[in-house]
Amino acid sequence: MSESTDHELIDQTLAGQTEAFNALICRYQDRLVHSLEHALGSREDALEAAQQAFVSAWKNLSGFRRDAAFYSWLYRIAVNAARTAKRRRRVETISLERLRGGSQQASDPSPTANPDHNITSNEKAWQIQNALHSIAEEFRQPLVLREIDEMSYDEIATALEIPVGTVRSRIFRARQELADRLKRLFPEEH
Question: What tens digit of pLDDT does each residue of 143-171 get?
């Protein structure tokens, strides 16, 4: 039995089959949270925005025009929810996970593993994350969607509601800014 397409699941949901929407959630939840975490800089903000996006998508599913991918539409909803929450808060919070150096890395169980290497790697990952998050959101978002979420330029344009040319220029600028920051952080590697 083949897996249902997004459009089939949407049709089933609109016909009253709530388990079809659960399938959409399962299909996109991890991807959405992962993308939002990189775009927003906080796992907590990403989880909150993703939850709000799914609720909003459920309520407005009949308004989905299907001229774009469901994920692009969902991502756009999540970004708007995150921006609204950010305007309300006006206070930046720092994720404890981010302070610990980002995502958890598997440790080497062998007795010859070098703890200094793990500390250096975690520190470097934290510095790279901070360099990425120091780029303005309007440039960081398209870069994250392209490099981490592997979305096409057209999908990014749809998700962010900007022209494809703007997507290309913002990604180019974000890459330049990130490269400049990384050269300053790690001059010995360049």
Answer: 888 888 888 899 899 888 899 999 999 99
The class of domain 1-97 in CATH terms is: mainly alpha
Per residue, the 3-state secondary structure of 7-49, as one string, reads HHHHHHHHCCCHHHHHHHHHHHHHHHHHHHHHHHCCHHHHHHH
CB neighbours of residue 113 within 10 Å = 10
- CATH 1.10.1740.10 domain range(s) in the chain: 1-97
Contact partners, residue 162, CB within 8 Å, separation at least 6: 170
Considering the chain, tell me which residue range(s) the CATH 1.10.10.10 domain(s) occupy.
Answer: 117-190
DSSP string covering 88-106: HH------HHHHTTSS--P
Class of CATH domain 117-190: mainly alpha
Question: Quick one: pLDDT band at residue 114, thresholds 50, 70, 90?
Answer: low
- Tens digits of residue pLDDT in 140-149: 989 888 888 8
* CA–centroid distance for 168 within its chain: 18
Q: What string of DSSP letters covers 111-178?
A: TT--HHHHHHHHHHHHHHHHHHHTS-HHHHHHHHHHHTS---HHHHHHHHTS-HHHHHHHHHHHHHHH
